[in-house]
């Protein structure tokens, strides 16, 4: 079974029906069918949650929380020792956000593809690290 770890921007692509939503729909369908496993760090999910709060002013938050409850995503609520050390190393030597470092380290720990649209920060990581990426189109700037 293939594993996928979602970056915040991947879930936002799905929620906002942006370019790349078809890829996310296929990932979720395969997860619902039991063909793949989809994970997300609570830190990356927190990014999505605060984005929804910031942009919607509480409109649709209940629906978002219900979606997360039933979505075929396993939320990882803790940081393992591996992720703790690997994320620190990634952040220390690369110009990436701490949340991205945690997501990438989680994908590495699970031998999973990291699903993201964050080309500007993460393409260099793909060149340097033994991690598989699944690239979505870059999200529109707000």
Give the overall pLDDT as a whole number.
95
- Which percent range fits the helix content? 55-70%
Which strand order do you get reading across the main beta sheet? 3-2-1-4-5
Number of domains: 1
Give helix and strand order, one letter per element, not per position.
EHHEHHEHHEHE
What Rg, in angstroms, do the CA atoms define? 14 Å
> Approximately how much beta-strand content do the residues carry?
15-25%
Number of strands: 5
- Here the CATH topology equals Rossmann fold
Write structural notes for this entry.
The protein is an alpha/beta fold. The chain has a single domain (2-135), classed as Rossmann fold, CATH 3.40.50. Helices cover 56% and strands 15% of the residues. The protein contains seven helices and five strands. It has helices at residues 8-15, 21-32, 42-56, 61-70, 81-93, 98-109, 119-128; strands at residues 2-6, 36-41, 74-76, 113-116, 132-135. Strands 3-2-1-4-5 form a five-stranded parallel sheet, sandwiched between helices. Helix 7 (119-128) links the parallel strand 4 and strand 5 (132-135). Helix 1 packs across helix 2, helix 1 crosses helix 3 and helix 5 (81-93) crosses helix 6 (98-109). The longest helix has 15 residues, at 42-56. It is globular and about 40 Å long. The N and C termini lie far apart (36 Å). The relative contact order is 0.21. The model has no long low-confidence stretch (mean pLDDT 95).
């Amino acid at each position: 079974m293939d594993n996928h770890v979602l970056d915040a921007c991947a879930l936002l692509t799905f929620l906002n029906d942006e370019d790349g939503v078809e890829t996310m729909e296929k990932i979720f369908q395969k997860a619902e069918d039991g063909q793949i496993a989809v994970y997300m760090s609570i830190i990356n999910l927190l990014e999505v949650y605060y984005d929804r709060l910031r942009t919607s002013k509480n409109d649709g938050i209940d629906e978002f929380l219900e979606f997360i409850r039933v979505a075929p995503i396993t939320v990882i609520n803790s940081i393992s020792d591996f992720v703790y050390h690997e994320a620190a190393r990634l952040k220390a030597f690369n110009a990436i956000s701490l949340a991205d470092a945690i997501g990438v380290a989680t994908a590495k720990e699970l031998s999973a593809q990291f699903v993201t649209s964050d080309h500007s920060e993460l393409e260099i990581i793909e060149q340097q690290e033994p991690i598989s990426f699944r690239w979505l189109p870059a999200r529109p700037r707000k």
